[in-house]
Amino acid sequence: MIYVISNHDARWLDFDRNPAIDEKTRLPYNLAETPPAHLTATSRLSPDFNELSEVHGVSLCALCRAQ
Length: 67
Hints:
- The protein is mainly alpha-helical.
- It has one domain.
- It has four helices and two strands.
- The protein has helices at 2-6, 12-17, 36-53, 57-66; strands at 21-22, 27-28.
- Helix 3 (36-53) runs antiparallel to helix 4.
């Protein structure tokens, strides 16, 4: 369980290294303004990552997203 909590946002690291850029500001989007296509694609990756190491990982991540 600690592993899952510690790696809750593990797959965001790849996105953070190469973020989507807001054409208006020429800066990376903040979380509240990130286009849904980027959010949904990245949000699916952390449960996949955690499921590889922790049987309950995907359930915990799914519960968190449902909140």
